[in-house]
Amino acid sequence: MPKLRGEAFWRETLRSAHYVVAPMVDQSELAWRLLSRRHGAQLCYTPMLHAQVFLRDANYRRENLYGEACPEDRPLIVQFCANDPEVFVQAALLAQDYCDAIDLNLGCPQMIAKRGHYGAFLQEEWDLLQRMILLANEKLSVPITCKIRVFPDIDKTVKYAQMLEKAGCQLLTVHGRTKEQKGPLAGVASWEHIQAVRKAVNIPVFANGNIQCLSDVEECIRKTGVHGVMSAEGNLHNPALFEGRNPLVWEVAEEYLEIVREYPCPLSYVRAHLFKLWHHTLQVYQQLREELAKVKTLEGIIDVNRELKLRCQEEIANQKEGEKPKEGLPFFHWICQPYIRPGPKERCRENGDSGTEKGVRGKRALEEEEDGNSELLSKNKQKKKLRNPNKSFDPSLKPKYAKCDQCGNPKGNKCVFNMCRGCCKKRAFKEVADCPGHGLLFKTKYEKSLSWQHSQRGIQTQEISQRGDAEVGEMAVLKEAGAS
Questions:
Q1: 108 in catalytic set
Q2: Which one of 86, 152, 241, 331 is most buried, counting C-beta atoms within 10 A?
Q3: What subcellular compartments does it reside in (predicted)?
Q4: Pairing of strands 434-435, 440-441
């Protein structure tokens, strides 16, 4: 059967999908895809897979794609990150029998993508991208698709999209943000860029960005003319987004946990999903946040969800007539709803800053909060905080250390030279000296060596003397025997 292309591929293979769940690292696993499909999603992507690891590691392939077959999980697109045409195509050849298309990730803006040289950090290397897509289009039995971020300039974004189409891309997903727009600096995605790309290419286009509810989906399709709309954050906070419903958080959690029983995944994935689903509720019940972070089994997570359900039901029973949601939320906290990420100015105001550029603090600065607010700490620091609630990450509270006279590193408290161990070792070796504080005994060992050598010489002298006496005695015996 010939490989379908463009509109025919979208219409027949992807079944004219309008509602799409984005590829999300450690978050768009099989269990979550099945939950999303039950609630209106028509097309799903796998998490981003690393092509080189997929190619060399059979366990990685089994865990991420080769597991138990699930007919419900179609149509499905497998996404890879890669920067080498041969590696990308060889990995795709191993995956093509398990999916309906292969997607090349050209949109990841994270630091890991920069270090690995893939994702959005390939968007200036058009020759390399052409070679990757041309080779994939030639070798694969399924279509090749791409997910991109935009350039600040609309014309350059359009030329970029046209280049990918010409190379053989059969469907293009456009995230309407630049690679610099991420985290608190994400801002609003540009549907204007997406609309320009849609008008300039002859292949299907999906839009990504600003999708928090079904009305956003409808508005995006109307304004941009795209074939479908992809959601990531909106889907994580409300997997029934494409149904236009806002279910109770514990009901969605119960359904998801039942699917996980049948199609297991790492507990870290499950925990991360529930942190998203319960985001607003956990602001109210902080103790449950701690319990969810500590729990070690799926059964334990189910128990936490049961406790959350009971607390919310009790709150609903005690609710006063006419009471409205708090904190400016559109719905009460126990209902699935979007989480609007605060922009840099809002975040500055939350942290008591002026909102000027100097007041905008980066991720690392936010993590150094004196109070150690868990909303602002990295995951590793949050774990340390759970183990030791009194731990502070305020640099001003860190103990002060006396510095090494030589290099400035902290010196040993009992060092005889007032140095760090490295500098002390060099000096003690050079001067044949001891430093008990660092456990360095060059002088003592040298003296022991001299003493041992001296004793060895004494033993040798004694042996020589004894050997000489024996030889004299032997000569005397021989002379006596000769005389007789």
A1: yes
A2: 241
A3: Cytoplasm; Nucleus
A4: antiparallel
Same domain for 124 and 230, yes or no, is yes
- The 10 Å Cβ neighbour count of residue 392 is 14
Return the pLDDT at 347. Answer: 47
- CB-CB neighbours of 406 under 10 Å: 16
What's 124's DSSP letter?
Answer: T
* CB of 106 closer than 8 Å to CB of 119: yes
Instruction: From the candidates 44, 99, 108, 169, give the one annotated as an active-site residue.
Output: 108
Low-confidence ranges of the chain (pLDDT < 70): 1, 341-376, 395-400, 468-484
Considering the domain architecture, whether residues 180 and 237 belong to the same structural domain is answered as: yes
Residue 184: the pLDDT is 76
Q: Are residues 163 and 130 in contact, defined by beta-carbon separation less than 8 angstroms?
A: yes
DSSP annotation of 434 reads E
For 85-122, write each residue's pLDDT tens digit. 999 999 999 999 999 999 999 999 999 999 999 999 99
Q: Is residue 389 assigned to a domain?
A: no
* Domain match, 183 and 52 both: yes
> What pLDDT, on the 0 to 100 scale, is given for residue 364?
42
What is the C-alpha separation between 356 and 341, in angstroms, rounded? 19
**Rounded CA separation 62/268 (Å):** 18
Size of the chain, expressed as the number of residues it contains: 484
Amino acid identity for residue 170 in this structure: Q
Q: What is the pTM assigned to this prediction?
A: 0.72
Containing domain of residue 100, as a range? 6-245
Residue 369 lies in a domain: no
